[in-house]
Amino acid sequence: MKLVTILLSILVMALARPLVSMADSDSLRTLTMKEAISMALENNHHLKASSHNARSSSYSTDIATSRYYPNLFFEESFGISNSPTQTFMMKLDQGRFSQNDFQIHNLNHPGSWRNFKTALTLTQSLYDPSISPSRAMARQEALKAEAGYEGAQQDLAFQVFVLYLDSVRAAAQLKAIEQALADATENVRLARVREREGVGLKSDLLRAETHRAMVEQHLITARNSITLIRLRMALAVGAGEGSLVEVAEPGRSMTPTCAIEELFRVALQERRDLRQSQADKDRGDAALRLARNAYLPTLDAFGSYQFNSREYPFGSDNDAWMTGVSLKWQIFDGFRRCSERKRVLAGRSAAEEELIAKTDEIKLQIRESCLRRDEAAKQRDVARQALASAEETVRLLGKRYENSLATMLDLLDAQTALNQSRSKLVDAEADYAFSGGRVFHASGMFLKEIMK
């Protein structure tokens, strides 16, 4: 039976080895918190996509602004016809019209005629009430995309911070499980000694060995969790699929002061999602101006200079120019503009409500993060006290078991409670650190604070 137990223990430990061999075989890159965040901001593909979207939106403003500038067109065309009106105009444009062309037969049945036309045309908008609001709408879209990119930077930095806390939590869990394994191994030794001396039960030894096997299973999972967190960190910082990255130094301590009103003021200035909601509202204002300006006329200037030739392109049998202005005013469109104005007005009202809702939501997030911060501090203190009590309980029951004053079941129950207390303290420490970062993230200052 002892031989079987020893072989089982060796097999379990052998299964645990491959989980960490991956970390040994691959290059493990160790970074500080600032280095990890800087690397993520430079290499993360999701952030790059957000940057390209912001850049794409910025060009919409330039496109809308271009409508203020003149348009210049060059044209070279060729035509041939025996239509009386077309032939008449071609000859006039080429300066080839003669007295013989006025004969009735020649007017009604002209021969075929060809024309090469070379023209340079200029158009300039003098008054177009749709340009300014269209440009304002494009500008707000660009601001929204830019705010989205900056918000993605904040979220990515916070993601790296959370992954760091996960790695700290996993490492502490691993250390606690390794300590639990050492304690379980000692319990097996004590049970075996007592059984050998005839003062212990075989069932106590089996319970102790079963308990140790359970701890070894948890050890396998803990080591695997560390490897997975390192893989996720590598993905976040853009180190490449399959790479392993860990943050060894946390950087600046996240210890905010929960002054609610000050955090409100900062959040209203720094939260990028709030800026996006404000941009939607401002875009609605511009869209409403555009809908109202649709009732106004447009005024354009135009001019052209052209050459006409019968024999070859770019020739100049005759030249001509023309210039003028054009006023267009749509009087009736089947109530389309009226419906459009109502639609835009409803959308603008929706954007205003969304802005109010987002502001209230951000204030709630700040209040919640501060409450969670206080809660995490208290939970951490309680977890520390619980761990001290659990350690003392195990120490006392260990002495009692050695003196046959307690059963193995009592000792294992106390050991299980100690393992849980260690795990809860690890979670409490990580939750406390997370709650501090959450306050800064809720107020929109996380990236600025963590990179100080």
In words, what does this structure look like?
The chain is of the alpha+beta class and 452 residues long. The protein has a single domain, classed as Outer membrane efflux proteins (OEP). It is 69% helix and 13% strand. The protein has helices at 2-25, 33-43, 45-65, 84-94, 104-108, 131-196, 202-237, 260-270, 272-293, 336-402, 408-442, 446-450; strands spanning 28-32, 71-81, 113-127, 244-249, 298-309, 318-328. Helix 6 packs antiparallel against helix 7. The longest helix is centred in the C-terminal third of the chain and has 67 residues, at 336-402.
List the defining traits of the structure above.
452 residues, alpha+beta, Outer membrane efflux proteins (OEP), four-stranded antiparallel sheet, two-stranded parallel ribbon, 13% strand, elongated, disordered N terminus
Write a short abstract of this structure.
The protein has 452 residues and is α+β, with helices and mostly antiparallel strands. The protein is elongated, with a radius of gyration of 40 Å.
Major sheet, described briefly?
4 strands, antiparallel
Q: How many helix segments?
A: 12
Name given to the CATH homologous superfamily: Outer membrane efflux proteins (OEP)
Order of helices and strands: HEHHEHHEHHEHHEEHHH
Major β-sheet strand ordering: 2-3-5-6
What Rg is obtained from the alpha carbons, in whole angstroms? 40 Å
Reported CATH architecture: Up-down Bundle
- In terms of DSSP E residues, the strand content is 5-15%
Number of strands: 6
* Low-confidence spans: 1-25
Structural class: alpha+beta
Shape: elongated
| CATH top level class name | Mainly Alpha
How would you state the average pLDDT, rounded? 86
| CATH topology label | Outer membrane efflux proteins (OEP)
Distance between the termini: 61 Å
The percent range for helix content is 55-70%
Domains, number: 1
